[in-house]
Amino acid sequence: MSRLIGVSCNDPVRFPRVVAMNREIFRTDPAAAHDGCGFGYYSNGEALLAVRPKGPGAVDYSQLVDDTRTAVAIMHVRRATVGAWKRENTHPFRFRRWLYAQAGTAAAVEARRAAHLESLPSFLQRNVQGETDAELVFHLLINGLNQGGLVDSLAAGRAVAENLLRSLGELGLTRSSGNVDAPSFIITNGRIMAGFTGSAELSYFLQEGIHDLDSQPERSQTEVDGDARFRAVLIADGVRAPGWQRIPPDTLLVIHENLSVQAFPVQSQTASGG
């Protein structure tokens, strides 16, 4: 099975522990093969990628992230539909500070691949290195953000959300536009994160505090206080568990830098939530 996960938290040091705490969410079926997995994260303001090749058995991200310190991350396990295994076809994809991973196939975009590639400015065309529809969708969304002056800006989540929804509508990648197979995705610039529910159901979860006390038997009061102050928002596909809230179809959920969340439905393009 494939897997799409995003994490945004308020303490990079405790990131590996929140992954370990949610190990069952972050694991794939041990009986299922995969076509590569990827881990995108940030260090000193730079977007970094770690990629593993295809293979049998489960992917356990609590082992893959090891002691990585990051406040924002995207993780993806791929089951190939467009493009064979190779590093360039493995999610997440990167452009400058932006990272992107997708669940589902954007058949409408893939059907017009040559035309869509031609529509991109040369600096974005050069960055499309693989064969997947997901990488192309990412660059089409980046092109929209670039035209809106948002690629390198510190714009608020609302401006980014409205721009992304506009691009999705223009590309016909929403269910309301008649595309029942619209892909789901997670995108981030390291400050804000957004998850869009298309054909794959996405849910989100607010993690409040660190509760893995058995693995930390001797802790100072400072460590205890830090654990209590920890907050994270997780987005994942295919999760139905206590505390997880479903992101409705055709809705972009934005996680702001302060970890508040805001839902932007496609049709109204008005915000709701906190």
Molecular structure report:
Helices cover 25% and strands 27% of the residues. The chain has 274 residues and is α+β, with helices and mostly antiparallel strands. The chain has a single domain, classed as Aminohydrolase, N-terminal nucleophile (Ntn) domain (Glutamine Phosphoribosylpyrophosphate, subunit 1, domain 1), CATH 3.60.20.10. Helix 7 crosses helix 8. It is globular, with a radius of gyration of 18 Å. The model has no long low-confidence stretch (mean pLDDT 86).
What is the CATH C level class, in words? Alpha Beta
Which stretches of 5+ consecutive residues score pLDDT under 50?
none
The beta-strand count equals 13
C-alpha Rg (nearest Å): 18 Å
Main structural class = alpha+beta
Main sheet: strand order: 3-2-4-1-10-9-11
CATH superfamily: Aminohydrolase, N-terminal nucleophile (Ntn) domain
CATH topology: Glutamine Phosphoribosylpyrophosphate, subunit 1, domain 1
Overall spatial form? globular
End-to-end Cα distance, whole Å, is: 32 Å
> Can you name the CATH architecture?
4-Layer Sandwich
Q: What's the order of the H and E elements?
A: EHHEEHEEEHHHHHEEEHEEEE
Largest sheet: 7 strands, antiparallel
Which bin fits the share of residues in helices? 25-40%
Percent in strands? 25-35%
Separate helix tally:
9
Number of domains: 1
Overall pLDDT = 86
